[in-house]
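General statements about sequence and structure are easier to judge against a single worked case. Part of our work consisted of pairing the sequence of a single chain with a tokenised description of its backbone. The amino acid sequence and the backbone structure tokens for this protein are reproduced below.

***
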Amino acid sequence: MMLLSFALAFIGFIALSLSMKRHHTQMWQHKKLTDRQVLWWRFVGYFSLIGSGILCMLSQGAVIGGVLWLGVLSAGALLQTMMLSHWPQLIVRLGIVFFVTGVLATI
């Protein structure tokens, strides 16, 4: 369940960065970002981050889960920042791989 929580946090940060014009053009050079896409990416990002927190709190309780969630958020943000700086085209593929791996590990 922790791997899925990390994957959701990572996907949430990817989605929030995709809602910014600069990072969107950095990942996909030829696509324009519309206002509707900005709202969609923000919704997905916040929903994924909240889902990550809920999974942490369900697995470890409210107090330990909250602290664990902060660690998961920190690790996800660090990985997303490093990937966005060095390999921006691979970041979405890595998010998909993490999500599939997290779901399979939870089952």
About this structure: The chain has five helices and no strands.
